[in-house]
Amino acid sequence: MLLGYARVSKGETQDTRLQETALRAAGVERVFTEQASGGRWERPQLHRLLDQLRPADGVVVWKLDRLSRSLKALLHIMERIAQAEAGFRSLTEAIDTTTPAGRMLMQMVGSFAEFERAMIRERTQAGLAIARAEGRTGGRRPKLGPQQQTAMVEICGYGQRRLCVRPLRLDRSGVTQRRVRSCR
Questions:
Q1: 178 burial class (0-12, 13-18, 19+ CB within 10 angstroms)?
Q2: What is the set of active-site residues?
Q3: Residue whose C-alpha is closest to residue 51's, from 27, 31, 81, 88
């Protein structure tokens, strides 16, 4: 069975009619349509399609970017299709994983994606090393400034592991208060 997926981004004035017409002309029996961003993973219709795949089924899209705008997500989707022993075909690009050439093309795309991820990881590690050498540390900024932390420790008492009995006017949760006191 051929299953199709058609998507337009939210907020666009387009609809999926052009895609659906092309998919039906290609022999697709069931079309899953959606209005959602291609960069998001939370797309209910796409997940319904992937959950219904059986061996020998085929997933057909009008264009590869309709399936996903993220290379990482695209590779994950392709992996799910392969696990279901189904095929994949894009109508406007020459990608058809039911043929040897199509499988090779998808493997090349996967190789480039893996290379890109490795390069990003390498640049990130280099940037973090430079930041550490300059005395900067990563992570989220503290909710309390140095003066607020000092005030809280003075009000609550140094080294106590319980919440203050007296109300603090620091507008912070008890979790933040405990974290500051336990670091002192």
A1: middle
A2: 9
A3: 81
